[in-house]
Amino acid sequence: MNRKHFLSIIPVGIFLNAFNLKSYASSTENTHYFGSRIPAPLSNGDTIGITCPAGYITREEIEPAVKQMESWGFNIKIGKTVGARDFTFGGTDQERLEDMQAMLDDAGVNAIMCARGGYGAIRIVDQLDFSRFKAQPKWLIGFSDITVLHCHINSNYHIASIHSKMCNSFPSNWDLAEPIQVDTINSIRQALTGEKMKYTAVYNVNNRTGIAKGELIGGNLRCIENLAGSKSEIETRNKILFVEDTGEYLYSIDRMFYNLKRSGKLDKLKGLIVGGFKLKKDDEGDEFGKTIIEIVMDKVSGYDYPVCFDFPVGHQKANYALKCGVKHILEVTSTGTSLYEI
Questions:
Q1: How do residues 147-191 score in pLDDT, each as one tens digit?
Q2: How many angstroms separate the most distant Cα atoms in the chain?
Q3: DSSP string covering 221-234, please?
Q4: b/e map of 238-255 (b: 16 or more CB within 10 Å)?
Q5: What is the 3-state secondary structure (H, E, C) of 73-88?
Q6: pLDDT tens digits, 279-297
Q7: Alpha-carbon distance 339 to 24, whole Å?
């Protein structure tokens, strides 16, 4: 239930120094891509609200994030659920619902940062009223359990959002932070302020080469599977899908990819991005016998779109800000992989 506790990483990961990742600045406008509406970029003096739609977190734990975002020139509004707790949740369902609703409705809040993941967004998503949010779109930021909100917003309202680290991932001492921590946290600022993002990664021999263009959508694989058949179900037709997960057995990953395949989520894709997967070790004597690469390639064997592995997104330090619902180009070649916003 608590997804901030990670288990052993599978051997397909590439060490951080194997990545050559960067973002480049370019001004952007509040415009439309394939029907998606892009929230306005943030400027100095704009306000970021912090709320807990899922797991709990203390006021002290979000302080490094508050200070860092203030140093970027933003004002911070701390929601009532920060510091609240109802067992694993950041307050009761009603408290989390009211706090998120207040952030969605507040015209003075320009972006909403979810404090952490865990579990809980699915318990309140159907009660949220997005009417004011539709009239005045704003960036929603987070990952893991927040995949529920990304998928719901994209499928129902066609508004872009930011899949990225949250408050619990900001380093407590910026001066002592690893370069990858600094780079990934800064990618949130770059995405919020309207920079067009570009990331590159070295070639993985298991990649399937090709070029794809489409809206980027995705997130946590378990959450995506759980949304099947609901009004928050992810829409993947003509899109570039990215997936990641943590704390699952290999057989569970296989089952989730079968769900994507059987429900038609894989057959109309433009491209597939496989991020970090941290797995539970198979029970002794009950080994699954397939790797994550074999699982994925088996499910996409009948299609010809590009597929890349080890992309820097997921429950890991190399977790960059990705703009869901925004048009991107994915290039998987014999020399490396590039994903860039257009």
A1: 999 999 999 999 999 999 999 999 999 999 999 999 999 999 999
A2: 58
A3: HHHHHHTTTSTT--
A4: ebbbbbbbbbbebebbbe
A5: CCEEEECCCCCCCECC
A6: 999 999 999 999 999 999 9
A7: 12
